[in-house]
Amino acid sequence: MTSVLVLNGPNLNLLGTRKPEVYGSTSLADVEKMCQKEADRLDLELVFRQSNHEGQLIDWIQEARETADGIVINAGALTHTSIAIHDALIAAELPVIEVHLSNIYRRESFRHHSFVSPVAKGVIAGLGPHGYELALEAMARLLQK
Ligand code: DQA
Fold it and tell me: What is the pTM for the complete model shown?
């Protein structure tokens, strides 16, 4: 079965309570449920993970090279800082779709640069949790080809 790793970075465990005016009121557990439903519909195996630790995220990306067919990633603030995640995603040699709940280009200028975007097939930002569903659908299509 085609397997997709959905990775969430720092502070995304606080989803629903952290700045709901920016990130909405849906919890990460609810986002996972939405993703599971969408993965079932698309006939994908879903592995959904969150960590506040850069090294843990990198370990999971390295693992994915052997165990997954694609990566959907919301790296949180590490998007804007982590060359290590950028390098790990290249080394994984898998299609990557970058997701952000908020539209990072409408926000502070330090959020306008992403180290994930140059290694991503596509970027979805600003559509809230629905962006994760769209990313899974796009990934399913990419992996069909
Ligand atoms: C985020 C945007 C980042 O700038 C921020 O640091 C996050 C969440 C988003 O999903 O909108 O933690 O990735």
Answer: 0.97
